[in-house]
Amino acid sequence: MDFTFQAIILGIVEGITEFLPISSTGHLIVAEHLLGFSDPSKTFTVVIQIGAILAVILYYFKDLLARVTGLFQGQANAKKFWFNLVIATIPAAVLGLALENFLGFLDTPLTVALALIIGGIILFVLETIRGKQQTAPEALEPDIDSITPRQALLIGAFQVLAVIFPGTSRSGASIVGGWLVGLNRVTATAFSFYLGIPTLGAAGLYKLYKARDSLSSLSGGAPALLIGSVVSLITAFLAVSWLLKFISRNDFKGFAIYRIVAGLVILILLATNVMPNT
Fold first, then answer.
1. How far apart are CA 239 and CA 171, in angstroms?
2. How far is the C-alpha of 117 from the C-alpha of 168, rounded, in Å?
3. What DSSP assignment string belongs to 225-250?
4. Would residue 253 count as lying in a domain?
5. Per-residue model confidence (pLDDT) at position 252
6. Is 276 a member of any domain?
7. Cα separation of 176 and 168, whole Å?
């Protein structure tokens, strides 16, 4: 199959799924298996996330620029924002580096399927509980400046689940973590987007540096990475703008149901040998 077509399809998958609570890594692992895309070092999966991160930077460019300016001007809210991002990134960064050489065996469709189903059930149950407890309308705008360092650190700890288990969803884990530490749905989702900038950006650049001499083992090599990253940037920008509007008026139950159905479909594909688990 033409690597350009493969890279475009995988870039679309990455861009659409990166910031939705349905696991971009899980979808990419399955899509690569179905497309016959060779990525033995998982370089493509990690690096094209840079495109999605650039989408978030573009979407929040004015706000991020104001917060950078505020940091140099000594503004308290700006200093708190960047501090929160740093401490929320630490758990995933430390664990990711420590377990980098030990978690490869989990990058299988079976792991993805189980993580999708379990995560979907948890998401559905939590949304049901939240719906019964909620007495006021959901906020329409995020309140990022209300997040405390303690909340940020705990959200970062939840994000670790996605580092260990492909299919968990980094955004889903951090959003659920945000709920459990007291954030509303919109604020938890927006902070998950911001948190993706250092978390995924650093992971992508680190992986690209480590694999700089082995890109030939990747289907399409460096051109495939470039194409996939550009496509993921475009589709991620559209996905981010849509999701923030969607969750201000809707809950995540639809995503929970999708996760469960997608996980069951993968199990069926594995059971019928349509897709190998290697």
1. 13
2. 9
3. HHHHHHHHHHHHHHHHHHHHHHHTTS
4. yes
5. 92
6. no
7. 11
